[in-house]
Structures are given as structure tokens and as C-alpha cells.
């Protein structure tokens, strides 16, 4: 007999290329991690201390469909590389940070920009603009054993075959080992954690019917339709 007083909610699991599923524990997102994007958002691109916000595990959505969310008329795409951890801990060193990485995936950090802007002006948290339902379309997980560690390579996003975002992973202000190490000073990282690493310049609104296509060198591409 189960001790649960209500049925337990389903856990978030993502397909792994080649077979198997990856269980998601937490989702961390780093903000303004490409200089050009920091500039377009009105901020100094100098290497200030990184900052983070979180999405919920069940915001990750592999369906290929993004439902346009309520209470917004300015929803933006943000193409990102996501990192998946197989282990963790506190105070992880730069030298060992990549040892904790299981794999990588294509992902989108969809943002209710108007609501995020309101929260910024009020000095309030961003979750209403960032952590809404199905706000992180995501592809299958590619194992490090298959693709290696992604430290450079083109990252692009097209909307209806028109290029909107273009950058290179080597333009990350805070590199992946640094992000893992820094996060582990403040949080106890663990297997199942996902880190979204930031977006290049070119973020812009989408409307219903748009087809977004993100591509990252080494991971292929993924299409997501705005419903």
C-alpha cells in the first residue's frame, strides 16, 4: 500500500540518443552569457559575476510544439545549449567540472518578455516570465561519449527559415566548466541537473504559426512550432 496521500506527479524524463531516458532533477539557467545579447538587453557585457534563475523540470518539453502562453503579447525565442549532469557536489573545481557532464541537448528558453520586463522594473523575481508551462522546448540528450564536450561550434536559430540568431559556443562569457564550478559554490549539484547556458544576440518575438529551428554544430537541429 502506498504512503502517498495523493497520486505522485510524474517525473520529467528525456530521451537519450541511442536509447534510455534521462531523469531531470533541477533546471538552472544562466542569464546574459553572450556579450552581444547582454548589449541588446541594455547591459554592460563586461565579465561581471554570473547570475542564475531557474525553470521547473516539467517546463522541459520535447514535443516539438510550443503553445503560446496566456497574459503575454511579446514572447521571445532564446536558442541555448543545455548541459546534463551525471553527478555533482559542492565546490566542484574547474579542472574536474566536465567530469560531471553526461551530455548536451538543443533547447529554447522561451520568455514572456513583457512580463519579465515588468518584474525587472519592480525588482521582483523573473519566474512569471521564464518558468511558465512548456517554456523550454528541448531535444534528445546526446551523450558526451558520442559528441564530446562542446566548447565551440555554431549556434543558430531560424524562424520560418529566416535567420534570427547566430553565434558560437566559444563566445560564452562564462564557459561550461566555470558555470558548473560557480553554481556548485551556492547549490549542491547532483545527477539529473540541467544547466541552460545562455543565448546569443538576436532574440525576438514569435507569433502563432511560426516554426522555429535551432541548430548547434555537433547536435544537429530541432524544429518547434508555435501553436
Automatic annotation (TrEMBL):
The record's listing under Pfam families reads: FAA_hydrolase
Q: Which keywords does this chain's UniProt record carry? A: Metal-binding
This protein's source sits in the domain of life called Bacteria
Specify the Fumarylacetoacetase-like C-terminal domain's residue ranges.
Answer: 27-226
Does the entry feature the keyword Glycosyltransferase, yes or no?
no
Q: What is this protein called?
A: Fumarylacetoacetase-like C-terminal domain-containing protein
**Gene for this chain:** ycgM
Amino acid at each position: 500500500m502506498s504512503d502517498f496521500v495523493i497520486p505522485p506527479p510524474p517525473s520529467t524524463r528525456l530521451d537519450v540518443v541511442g536509447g534510455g531516458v534521462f531523469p531531470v532533477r533541477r533546471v538552472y539557467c544562466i542569464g546574459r552569457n553572450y556579450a552581444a545579447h547582454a548589449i541588446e538587453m541594455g547591459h554592460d557585457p563586461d565579465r561581471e559575476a554570473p547570475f542564475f534563475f531557474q525553470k521547473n523540470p516539467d517546463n522541459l518539453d520535447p514535443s516539438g510544439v510550443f503553445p503560446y502562453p496566456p497574459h503575454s503579447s511579446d514572447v521571445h525565442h532564446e536558442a541555448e545549449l543545455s548541459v546534463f549532469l551525471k553527478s555533482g557536489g559542492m565546490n566542484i573545481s574547474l579542472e574536474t567540472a566536465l567530469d560531471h557532464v553526461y551530455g548536451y541537448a538543443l533547447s529554447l528558453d522561451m520568455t514572456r518578455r513583457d512580463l519579465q520586463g515588468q518584474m525587472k522594473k519592480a525588482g521582483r523575481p523573473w519566474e512569471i516570465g521564464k518558468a511558465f508551462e512548456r517554456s523550454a522546448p528541448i531535444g534528445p540528450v546526446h551523450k558526451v561519449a558520442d559528441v564530446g564536450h562542446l566548447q565551440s561550434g555554431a549556434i543558430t536559430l531560424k524562424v520560418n527559415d529566416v535567420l534570427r540568431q547566430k553565434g558560437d559556443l566559444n563566445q560564452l562569457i562564462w564557459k561550461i566548466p566555470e558555470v558548473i564550478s560557480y553554481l556548485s559554490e551556492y547549490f549542491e549539484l547532483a545527477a539529473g541537473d540541467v544547466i541552460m547556458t545562455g543565448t546569443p544576440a538576436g532574440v525576438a518575438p514569435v507569433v502563432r504559426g511560426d516554426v522555429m529551428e535551432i541548430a548547434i554544430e555537433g547536435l544537429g537541429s530541432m524544429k518547434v512550432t508555435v501553436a
